[in-house]
Amino acid sequence: MISNIYTGSDALLNRPKKEGVKRFGIMGGTFDPIHHGHLTIAEWVREAYNLDKILFIPSGCPPHKEGRKVCDALARFNMVEMAIKDNPYFEICACELHRVGYSYAIDTVRQLEHQYEEKVEWFFITGADAILELDTWKEAKQLVELCEFIAVIRSGYQLDQVRSSLSQMMEDWQPKGIYITHLPLIEISSTNIRMRIKKELSIRYLVPKNVEYFIYQHHLYR
Ligand code: ATP
Ligand code: MG
User: What does pTM read for this prediction?
Assistant: First the structure.
């Protein structure tokens, strides 16, 4: 077992914060569209891990969604922006929107590190599905050595199974810190929302009201 893969938040909460250093979460995703699953886990992770802020970073051109038509980046960005606007701990970052070519997490984290220098510790928040695909991400080994990860269990995944798969994947890596967390499961996915819209089923309560209006107004996912 790799030593710095943890379950829960104790390991981080017991690590004293360095003077003047903030802890920020990065919530990256395609957000096609953003939904209450994303928002709830961001809020719960922020609280459970005592993070100072969560940066939502919609991908400009997601490398993992090839073979499927992804909604226009600006529309996805606008939906994230309206979904988070009433939470003072949430912020949106346009860094992947302005980048040419595929959006890679490693480039984003390097850019943020450069921007904030050593005043911030970064925690990349993902669902279990996303972190288990980490070995397909660009420069994954460097990425886990650069920033810490908080992985939230999604339905269909078991904590022990995620932990052992990650240990196996990271056998020769030196991850800075991976925290696997078992918050109450929220079975919402963008795939399911897109499917419901196509079938003309209700998406009420799955996405914020303003996002729902935006989707209908712009005839998205028909
Ligand atoms: P899609 O179905 O199109 O893949 P999604 O709902 O998985 O959409 P993404 O934009 O792919 O949303 O996800 C961004 C990040 O949020 C990923 O790390 C994903 O694992 C995580 N995530 C999304 N929904 C949930 C959820 N309900 N519970 C926990 N994590 C989630
Ligand atoms: Mg997904």
Answer: 0.96
